[in-house]
Write a structure and sequence with these properties.
Chain lengths: 434, 349
């Protein structure tokens, strides 16, 4: 009887125990499922984002061109026959481009219709003709076959983004233009080609002529200035704070402030830049120099915090050993601690730089949110940066800029991924474990 | 990585920094025109700047989009190469701004460049809207007259509540935030005109202009009006996705998306190029830019830039700015303004 009671009690305990165990297993499984679904959601959102950007941006890497036979008429280009570069540069190449197009359609004679026909070509289609003549004046008087860029409407139509079935009045490409495009297509004179100009020119108001190169150079110059200022300042500050500074209320205060500074909204640094660099020092507006200095202020806390963490990770035994063999404090830091901490410092710096690369808000205040056609060559030339270029294109009414915007985002993401990959590589390669 | 290398690197970096500071200490001479101001005029100003850079021997002007008010602030700050030469505005210069400019020794030339229409548009698939400015006010104002001399919180939930002839749809309007010049112009031109159709508000306008403006300019905040951000392309996208919503934006965006969107008819006039140019469409405003005369001669190319902007190839009825969505001025006005712009006639207020 008592045995039974005991074994009953034991059985009961047993079943309760296994029920509880089952519950714990279930909870564990649910917990894992939550985590997994969080990752799946995050990855799919990222996938959708990248997918739409690539889908929208891909057409921008290609451009529609029309092949025409241009007669480089001396009477138009250089009537005086001097072959001076100035005369060659300012000649009316637009007329050459237009007349070469008229020749393909000799039955278009009415003035208004001719005007519409000439709009198949971009308003800047003549620019390569000018470069050809300036580079080689001997082609004057000859006829050359040239591929000229089409206008943005024709380009979007040829890429299939404008529906032929829409009512003509609501379509930006009219029936006669479609007929011309079809005729060119039948002759093999219209074609999609890789858009090299996108990677070689600055901004333009015409989507078919706009390029990313000006912004890439602007970003590069800005980041050079940022690096040159924030890296030495940040590392020196961190080394002093970590290795030499006494632990007291003042250093605590400084530390708290540095951490706070890292969380300050970036527009505040822009305001500071406007007040100090532009108003007080009188530096030029829209210059990568000022942009770089402002972004350097923004990146400083990131670099200081990363550097201090890297210095802390160097074990004290290294310092003690160096001191033990008679090294001075300076030698300890420069010969042993800094080199060992360098991978961590560089990783932090690169991440700070990547952050600076994506910043627009502080640049608004110092005039870098601007339309700039010429590609900058020094840090004082007016220039813009990649994220600003994206912002300007996203705000433009022309529909062809939608693709350009996504393409620019792809270029920016490419740079960010490269920079982060370098950071990861540096860490993998040089990191030491103690 | 030894100390020597590191020290060298640091020294190079530091010297670059020091050099850049001292180099920039002196404000440099600039060879390109600097333009600031309205984001509405930006597409036109940049188009002219690009042409100007391509067809002349001058550098391409730098155009910043700072908003009309921000542009005026920078422009009127003083004379000297660190200040901009031209500012764009989607409204006329205010008296206070003009005063500030004069105090800083600036003489201004005003150039009116054309019109911009503000449209209410919806998807091609949506209903047709025949609106009046009164309907717009009744649909979007925060408070409307209750008919007994007082004001009530706007009770209209559907367009058919506003006016039985309008579609039986929930009021859903996507528009720009208060920081935008388009919003300023919209409330001034459409909402104020609508408010003036009520005798009690008209009377209030005579007594207390400020109180009237508060009523006419307050847009409802109960979800019927959605602030969709400064980016008009975003509004266009949202409208194609939601055929029941109306959007408020500049005419050039309707022009570019005419296969997807249609403009609502306001006071019997459709927002077409001809109606805006002829002054029949009620919600349209003038666009301007202002030139600093003191910089003519110091900064190269200002006069030539003015000549390019006011040439018929640019702002005329067949010019390239029209392709960008500018509504040109009547022929006689263009002639007169070209005269005063090229002769740098000073503005007096």
């Amino acid at each position: 009887m008592t045995d039974m009671a005991i074994s009953n009690a034991a059985n009961k305990q047993q079943t309760e125990f296994s029920a509880r165990l089952q519950k714990r297993y279930a909870a564990e499984r649910r917990f894992r499922a939550y985590g997994l679904s969080a990752i799946v959601i995050a990855v799919s959102i990222l996938g959708i984002l990248l997918g739409t950007i690539s889908f929208q941006g891909a057409p921008a890497f290609f451009q529609t061109y029309i092949q025409v036979d241009v007669y480089f008429d001396e009477a138009v280009i250089d009537p005086a026959g001097t072959r001076e570069e100035r005369a060659l540069r300012t000649a009316n190449y637009q007329a050459l481009a237009k007349s070469s197009l008229y020749e393909i359609f000799p039955d278009v004679t009415e003035r208004r219709e001719k005007r519409t026909l000439s709009r198949l070509l971009s308003s800047g289609a003549y620019r390569p003709l000018r470069e050809m003549v300036v580079n080689d004046p001997s082609i004057i008087g000859t006829t050359q076959s040239v591929w000229l860029v089409t206008s943005d409407d024709i380009d979007t139509f040829y890429k299939g983004q404008i529906d032929r079935e829409t009512v003509e009045a609501d379509r930006r490409v009219k029936d006669n233009e479609i007929a011309w495009v079809d005729a060119l297509e039948a002759e093999g004179r219209i074609d999609l080609q890789f858009n090299t100009a996108f990677f070689a020119t600055g901004d333009s108001r015409e989507p078919e002529l706009a390029g990313i190169w000006g912004a890439v150079v602007g970003s590069f110059l800005t980041l050079i200035v940022t690096l040159a200022v924030s890296f030495p300042l940040g590392v020196s500050a961190a080394v002093y704070l970590e290795e030499f500074a006494p632990k007291n209320r003042w250093t605590d205060l400084i530390e708290v402030n540095i951490n706070n500074l890292a969380a300050v909204p970036s527009i505040v640094f822009g305001l500071l830049g406007l007040a100090v660099f532009l108003s007080f020092f009188g530096m030029p507006r829209s210059a990568p120099l000022v942009g770089g200095l402002v972004l350097a202020l923004m990146t400083l806390p990131t670099i200081i915090i990363a550097t201090r963490a890297a210095l802390k990770a160097v074990p004290p035994s290294i310092r003690e050993a160096a001191l033990g063999v008679g090294a001075s404090d300076l030698q300890v830091v420069t010969h042993h601690v800094l080199p060992l901490a360098m991978p961590g410092i560089l990783t932090g710096t690169i991440i700070g730089m990547a952050q600076a690369l994506g910043e627009t808000a502080p640049l608004l205040m110092i005039g870098m949110v601007a339309f700039i056609v010429d590609v900058p060559s020094t840090v004082t030339d007016p220039s813009t940066v990649l994220p600003v270029q994206i912002y300007i294109w996203a705000d433009s009414p022309e529909r062809a800029f939608v693709a350009k915007t996504s393409a620019a985002i792809m270029v920016l993401l490419g740079f960010l991924i490269t920079m982060n990959a370098v950071a990861v590589m540096l860490r993998k390669r040089f990191e030491r474990r103690w | 990585m030894n100390f020597k290398n590191l020290a060298q690197n640091l020294a190079v970096a530091a010297s670059v920094t020091v050099a850049s500071f001292t180099m920039a200490g002196v404000a440099e001479a600039r060879d390109q025109i600097q333009i600031v101001g309205s984001s509405t005029v930006f597409p036109f100003s940049t188009a002219v700047a690009e042409r100007f850079g391509q067809t002349t021997s001058f550098s391409t002007p730098v155009v910043e989009s700072t908003g009309s008010g921000g542009g005026m602030k920078l422009f009127c700050a003083g004379v000297g190469l660190e200040h901009p030469d031209i500012t764009n505005a989607s409204r006329r210069i205010k008296e206070s701004e003009f005063g500030k400019c004069t105090d800083n020794g600036i003489t201004i030339t005003e150039v009116k460049i054309g019109f911009d229409g503000i449209v209410l548009a919806n998807s091609k698939e949506g209903a047709e809207f025949y609106l009046t400015t009164r309907d717009i006010f009744l649909a979007l104002a925060k408070e409307i007259p209750d008919g007994n001399g007082g004001l009530i919180e706007n009770p209209n939930a559907k367009w058919s509540d506003v006016n039985p002839q309008l579609p039986d749809l929930r009021i859903e309007v996507l528009g720009p935030p208060p920081t935008s010049g388009t919003r300023d112009a919209f409330v001034e031109l459409a909402m104020e005109a609508g408010a003036k159709t009520f005798p009690e508000l008209k009377a209030l306008r005579k007594e207390d202009k400020k109180a009237f403006k508060v009523i006419a300019h307050s847009v409802r905040e109960d979800g019927a009006f959605v602030e969709a951000g400064e980016n008009d392309n975003l509004i266009v996208q949202k409208l194609t996705a939601n055929p029941n919503a109306l959007g408020i934006f500049g005419f050039s965006f309707l022009d570019q998306n005419s296969d997807r969107l249609k403009g609502s008819i306001v006071d019997g006039n459709a927002p077409t190029f001809e109606n805006i140019a002829g002054g029949d469409y009620p919600i349209s405003r003038s666009l301007f830019f202002y030139v600093k005369q003191e910089h003519v001669g110091t900064v190269p190319g200002i006069e030539e830039f003015l000549a390019e902007f006011t040439s018929d190839g640019a702002w005329g009825p067949d010019g390239y700015l029209v392709d960008k969505g500018l509504i040109p001025l009547p022929d006689a006005d263009r002639e007169a303004i070209r005269e005063s712009a090229t002769s740098l006639a000073p503005l007096a207020m």
